[in-house]
Amino acid sequence: MSVNSVNYYKKKLILFLLLKSFLIIILMLFVGLGLGPDEAQYWTWSQKLDWGYYSKPPAIAWQIKLGTFLWGNTELGVRFFSIVIAFAQALAIYHLALACHLISRAAFWCALVMAFCPIGIFGAFFAITDGGMLLCWTFASLILVQAIKKSTFPSVASLGFCILMGALFKWSIFILWLYIAVFYLYYYPLKSWYKSFLLAFCISLMGLLPSLWWNWSHDWATFRHVMSSTMQVGSGTSKGNFFEFVGSQALLFSPIFFVLLLASYKVCLKKFKTLFQPICFCFLLSFGSLVLFSTMALFQKMQGNWIVFTYPTSIILVGWYCFEVNCKAFKWLKIGLIFTLFLSSLMFLWPVFSVNHRKSPFKHNLGWLNMREALKQTGYDPQKNFLVSDRYQTTSLLSFYSEGQKRAYFLNLEGHRKNQFSYWPQFQKEEKEKTGYFVWVENAPHLETNWQNRQQFYQKELLKYFEQVETLDLMPLLQEKQQMVKGMLVFKCQNCKEIWPDEIQKY
Fold it and tell me: φ, ψ for residue 484 (rounded to 5)?
């Protein structure tokens, strides 16, 4: 493999990635997709930087804080570093493919698959915790592959640090240690690497320290939340979703790429004992995770993005299969890339060219740009009033899209689990005797069937916390053929009382 070839394809890749980044920014600015509830929640975290947060480690908030420092408290500011991370992710895949001894042309196509498969595009557009974790996972895999080629254990500091950084985004990166242990146990004597393994593992655990510090003074909320979620998954109360889970992998990875991946699995299983060790590592991680999580999905509901960490090594397998095992499959790789670009473009442009917002894949991102004006029509004044809701998602969106971007409050009227707003000062203390606006948001068709019942419920419940409650109106946020498909029900609540709802111990 010549240096000139490697540099040529790398420069070519960078041009494609710059074009992609430019197009993503255009979409952010002009397609009208507002923040999703989780993105808005992460933004509220970034407004109060801390060592940890209720449900996630702190890095996503730090990432957004840096983006908003550069571009202001805008959608672009919130999402900007997702573009940067996705750019680096594709380059990391390019180098990982080269480290696995794929030719530079194959490495180039692997990087394009990463950049333009659905998870690569959505990860560049939305502010999600998977992006930073996935980049650190890929760097760790690169370090591992480079060491495997030399039949050694990787640099303790480098490997430990990569996993440490990934843990600041998402703790699922620690699963990588399981695959490292299994691989080295299969190929090398335990005594030759276990001390380095333990030392690197201990370094990586330092990624938990910020969250531990925050949790120590916040009732160990994150650990209680994770434990509660784990117990719920393992309780047997939810039905399995095997076909849905496997189907979601095909959609997130792109159906044609997924078929090529399955074909590579077949070859790897047949030639397992003679596989080049880096390819064997990629196969172990990708195939092992898919089998494990798919088996679990027979009994419990599993989320599609729970094995997103397998995609980097899965892409290497696809590139290896198309360029070294079955060169005729390369045409399907190109068809798959065209198909996923068409599908992703259709999904992003749906809000622009379609009036059927009810079926939009991003319906939870639509309508928020109208929230500020709708609140203004109700008489909300950020200098005198405050906003409150009984859903943390709505509370987050109110915080970002209201005039002045003041943090809204969460009022737990129905015994929902705790969230980050539960650990911040409440309106009963900070807004005593002031007037607030309570907001309930819903999409069609539940909007039409529930809003009157919700009006009666809130009118009654809010009187416990305010001296006077007035139902203002059902305000449209999104309309389709003169019908409301997303709306918010607003209550004007005067003179809040110093009364708190009962403490809820749900995490």
Answer: -80, 120
Rounded-to-integer distance, Cα 295 and Cα 310, Å: 16
Average pLDDT, the chain: 93
Residue range(s) defining the domain that contains residue 263: 13-348
Whether the bond into 445 is cis, omega within 30 of 0:
yes
Distances (CA, A) of 234 to 65, 293, 344: 36, 13, 34
The pair of structure tokens assigned to 446 is: 């539940």
Q: Which amino acid is at 364?
A: H
Q: Provide mean pLDDT across the span 130-149.
A: 97
Token representation of residue 17: 């990635």
As a whole number of angstroms, the distance between CA 49 and CA 52 comes to 8
Residue 267 sits in the same domain as residue 397: no
pLDDT in tens, 330-341: 999 999 999 999
Q: Are residues 409 and 299 in the same domain?
A: no
How confident is the model at residue 57, as a pLDDT?
A: 96
Residue pLDDT, tens place only, 171-202: 999 999 999 999 999 999 999 999 999 999 99
Number of domains making up the chain: 2
Cα–Cα distance measured from residue 355 to residue 292, given in angstroms and rounded to the nearest whole number = 41
Confidence of residue 355 (pLDDT cuts 50, 70, 90): low
- Short-list 154, 158, 164, 204, CA closest to 184: 154
415: region left, alpha or beta (phi > 0 left; psi from -120 to 50 alpha): left
| Nearest-angstrom CA–CA distance, 212 and 408 | 27
Same domain (yes/no): 120, 39: yes
Buried b (16+ CB within 10 A) or exposed e, 36-48: bbbbbbbbbbbbe
pLDDT tens, position by position, 208-218: 999 999 999 99
User: Pairing mode, if any, of strands 466-480 and 386-389?
Assistant: unpaired
CB-CB contact of 34 with 366 (8 Å): yes
CA dist 502 and 43 (Å) reads 28
Q: In the predicted model, is pLDDT for residue 62 greater than 70?
A: yes
Rounded Cα gap, residues 376 and 438, in angstroms: 14
398 in the same domain as 263: no
Its pTM stands at 0.94
Distance CA(108)–CA(93), nearest Å, equals: 9
- Buried/exposed code over 148-176 (b: 16+ C-beta within 10 A; e: otherwise): beeeebbebebbbbbbbbbbbbbbbbbbb
Q: How far is it, in rounded angstroms, from Cα 338 to Cα 344?
A: 10
Residue 7 lies in a domain: no
Please give the angle made by the CA atoms of 418, 422 and 424, to the nearest 5 degrees: 155
Mean pLDDT within 123-138 = 97
